[in-house]
Amino acid sequence: MILSLETFSPDRIIDISVTLRQGLACWPGEEYWQLESTQQIAKGGSCNLSRATMSLHMGTHVDAPWHFGEGDRTVEAIPLSQLVIGARVLDLTHVEAAIGRSDLEGKLDGIQAVLLKTSDSGRLEALEPFNRDFVHLDESAAEYLVEQNISTVGIDYLSVEGYHVENAPVHHRLLGAEVLIVEGLDLSGVEARDYLLVVLPLKIEGADGAPARAILIDSDR
Amino acid sequence: MILSLETFSPDRIIDISVTLRQGLACWPGEEYWQLESTQQIAKGGSCNLSRATMSLHMGTHVDAPWHFGEGDRTVEAIPLSQLVIGARVLDLTHVEAAIGRSDLEGKLDGIQAVLLKTSDSGRLEALEPFNRDFVHLDESAAEYLVEQNISTVGIDYLSVEGYHVENAPVHHRLLGAEVLIVEGLDLSGVEARDYLLVVLPLKIEGADGAPARAILIDSDR
Fold it and tell me: pTM to 2 decimals?
């Protein structure tokens, strides 16, 4: 992939973030979204101003190792090299329930990051209610990602791990190896190939994760 | 600038975002920062979880046109072409009080975005108390940016406009022309030259602005 600033076209950029708004599915028990107006021109204010309250794991977001107590790295300390990185989008929309090692084998050559497009892509942006049967990674897949020295893994629903899996082995294996986890992507309109991924979480001191905006820059358009 | 994914080095990326944390200077009256733990491993939880409350104009952030009622474009609708863009960092650390047209004339050739490095760079990250005498743009400078078809302008303190300037002419002129305003950058360690700017605000539906993470990709290292 060659990006030239002189010939750089906005057509090459794809937004893979979900929109933060009322009605967006959240992890059960983590529904804190509020957007409150603090000043309004319509009511005589000099400008429109708001404040937001949110779970750090709402919508498109990243998990820091400290989220599951794997070391003390919190979100502001995630290296930029895991946030701006060559990434392969894999089409796994045929997979039901769990993505296993065999779904990934032989598909990660020459790449540092992988984004998993599943049959749940688009559900968040369509404001569907929380789906507890979302497609996720099993332990063998997490193990394979670590073996393959993958730096960053992304998925299109709210967790890389199945709903309420005991002891969270997938999170522990990935975060224990300092693999960056990106959750809540919208990959519904994205073709399966290689891109430059830029995922920029808010730089919140001491946090277990952070909401993020994520884009892909496409070399092939 | 040529970026090759094959030869892409993380050394070329510079984080120009300030860290969101207790003690970070906020616009007077807009001090809403709270980071609250909702689950802790140390207290028997299965993971560490938090929620945050913040002003949308805290730390590194963008202003949408609707912030000052200039049309109805809110932050989720800002085009990606204003967020991923060739940008020139100008060293204006010698300017006292206000940046005028003459400080910018002849310095914007061949570029779509400009980041203004002032003597206030680094104050936010150093947790200095709010400084109401920060360096800002005057009306002639705002007019010149619009004349020059600048798409995105960034500055290193909390506003492009002076403290409590009546009727906010700089905001109205820039936002009225759909110039994207980025405020609260940390340009203290950045050399004055051209970069690829990537500034990614949270995609919050209907919002007047949003906190963002911003990076520069440097072609010259």
Answer: 0.96
